[in-house]
Fold this sequence. Notes:
The chain is an alpha/beta fold. The chain has 7 helices and 10 strands. It has helices spanning 44-51, 74-84, 100-110, 116-126, 142-154, 172-189, 200-203; strands at 2-13, 16-28, 33-37, 59-64, 67-68, 85-88, 160-164, 192-196, 208-213, 216-220. The strands form 2 sheets. A 6-stranded mixed beta sheet has the order 6-7-8-3-9-10, with helices on both faces. It has a 4-stranded antiparallel beta sheet with strand order 2-1-4-5, covered by helices on one side. Helix 3 (100-110) crosses helix 4 (116-126) and helix 3 (100-110) packs parallel to helix 5. The longest helix has 18 residues, at 172-189. The two termini are 18 Å apart. The mean pLDDT is 94.
Amino acid sequence: MISVRSLSMRLTSGGRAVDVLTDVSLEVPAGQFLAIAGPSGSGKSTLLGLIAGLDQPTGGRIEVAGVAVTDLDEDALARFRRDHVGYVFQSFHLIPTLTAQENVAVPLELAGQADAEARAGALLAEVGLADRAHHYPVQLSGGEQQRVAVARALARRPPLLLADEPTGNLDSATGKQIIDLLVGANRRLGSTLVLVTHDAALAAHADRVVTLRDGRIVSDE
Length: 221
C-alpha cells in the first residue's frame, strides 16, 4: 500500500540546514495498522505529511497504492488525496463557519456526491453525534470536534487513513474513544491506518510500531 524509499527532508532554520528525515525506507502492506512513534521533533509528523503529499521531500520516493506521490503536481496531488486519503489532525481543522454535518459533507460535495448531506448525517450517527449535527465547532467539546474530524476523514471510505497525534489534545477517556473509532474503521473497511503518536500505550494498539529518533528509523517491530 505504501512504499517509502530513501526519503530525506532538509529544512532551513535560522539560516542553517536541518535534516528532519534522513534515509527513511518503509513498506506498509494494505490493511495494516502502523504506529509511527518517537519523541517530539523526531520527524514523525513530517513523514506522515509527506506520505499524504502535503509537502515534497528533499530526496527519495513515495508510492501509495501504486501511485508515485512524489511525482505528482499540485492538482494531481489534490485529486489523489480526495480519492485515496483520509487525514485526521491533532487540532481538528474543522471549518468554524460550518456545522458539524456541513464539515463532514465537504469532501463528499467536492467529489460530486449527490446525497452528501444525508451521508454526512449518517456518518455523524456512526460516531455518536447524531444530536450534534447542526452545532458549530465552537459549540462542541474537543472530543466531539475530533469525532467530527474522524467522520469527515472516513466520508469517502478512503483506502488510506492517516492520523497525526489524534488524541494529543484530549483526555485519556476521550482519546480512547477516538482510537476505537479509527481502529474500528481500519478493521471494518480494510483500510490502511498510519497513526503518529509519542504515547507508547497508544502505539501498543497497532499491528506494528516504527520508532523514529532524530529523523531516522531506530526500530521496526
